[in-house]
């Protein structure tokens, strides 16, 4: 059975994000085909997709390699995400379904329980699920695709620390959900923007960068 290129793409991306393939590592079609038990055709297609996403780069005489993002690129990634997530929340307020609201409310309820209990590892997964659902509720395929790609790249470039005040963090998630439920797009946008600014300090760069450090703190994160 032929394994589709998108499945191979997901597997390679996951290995890049997890650190199995380090920045700068060479990626040959033969090596990857053996690793995933596929032919070179879906590997070739997957590498083209990953290059368009910024995970892979092509080098003369070396072929495909894992990209080596600069600190400036990493900082830009967070800044773009902080612009797009409020837009997704505003659209979610106009376009969400009852199914989306049910999931968001359930996540908020569970997140608040875990926050009060000090279960930090659960909170990180729940927070990611919350923001993914909020993006899905925007019903904007292009925006969802961008945020999904950014989520993968943020997971690759950054280690995310648990929030210092998890109860307050999940109270903010609850307020965002309430605004979305009421259809208040501007409040959902403002609350999400404020939440993103307050949680920006939890991100710590973890990938090896290809250029000297820049002053990330001077950017409006």
Note down, in words, how this protein is organized.
Pfam families: FCD (PF07729), GntR (PF00392). This is GntR family transcriptional regulator. The protein has 221 residues and is mainly alpha-helical. It is 67% helix and 6% strand. The protein has helices spanning 5-18, 29-36, 40-53, 71-95, 98-117, 120-137, 141-157, 166-182, 185-199, and strands at 56-59, 63-66, 158-160, 203-205. The protein has a two-stranded antiparallel sheet with strand order 1-2. The protein has a two-stranded antiparallel ribbon with strand order 3-4. A hairpin with a 3-residue loop joins strand 1 and strand 2 (63-66). Helix 1 (5-18) crosses helix 3 and helix 4 crosses helix 6. The model is unreliable at 212-221 (pLDDT under 50).
The secondary-structure element order is: HHHEEHHHHEHHE
Contiguous helical run count: 9
Through-space gap between termini: 47 Å
Mean pLDDT: 89
Q: Give the % helix.
A: 55-70%
Overall 3D shape: elongated
Strand order of the largest sheet: 1-2
What are the segments in which pLDDT stays under 50 over at least 5 consecutive residues?
A: 212-221
Structural class: mainly alpha
What Rg, in angstroms, do the CA atoms define? Answer: 19 Å
Beta strand count: 4
What kind of sheet is the major sheet? 2 strands, antiparallel
Q: What is the beta-strand fraction?
A: 5-15%
Organism: Streptomyces toxytricini
Keywords: DNA-binding, Transcription, Transcription regulation
Pfam families: FCD, GntR
Protein name: GntR family transcriptional regulator
Short note summarizing the structure:
This protein is mostly helical. It is built from 9 helices and 4 strands, in the order H-H-H-E-E-H-H-H-H-E-H-H-E. Strand 1 and strand 2 form a beta hairpin.
């Amino acid at each position: 059975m032929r394994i589709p290129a998108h499945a191979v793409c997901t597997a390679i991306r996951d290995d890049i994000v997890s650190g199995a393939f380090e920045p700068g590592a060479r990626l040959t079609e033969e090596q990857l085909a053996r690793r995933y038990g596929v032919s070179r055709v879906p590997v070739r297609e997957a590498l083209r997709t990953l290059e368009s996403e910024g995970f892979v780069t092509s080098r003369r005489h070396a072929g495909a390699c894992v990209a080596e993002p600069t600190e400036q690129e990493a900082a830009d990634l967070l800044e773009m995400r902080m612009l797009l997530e409020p837009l997704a929340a505003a659209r979610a307020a106009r376009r969400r379904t009852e199914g989306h609201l049910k999931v968001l409310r359930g996540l908020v309820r569970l997140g608040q329980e875990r926050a009060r209990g000090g279960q930090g590892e659960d909170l990180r997964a729940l927070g990611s699920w919350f923001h993914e659902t909020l993006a899905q509720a925007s019903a904007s395929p292009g925006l969802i695709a961008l945020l999904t790609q950014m989520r993968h790249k943020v997971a690759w470039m950054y280690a995310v620390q648990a929030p210092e005040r998890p109860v307050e963090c999940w109270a903010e998630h609850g307020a965002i959900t309430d605004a979305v439920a009421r259809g208040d797009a501007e409040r959902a946008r403002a609350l999400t923007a404020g939440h993103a600014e307050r949680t920006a300090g939890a991100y710590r760069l973890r990938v090896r960068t290809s250029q000297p450090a820049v002053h990330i703190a001077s950017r409006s994160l």
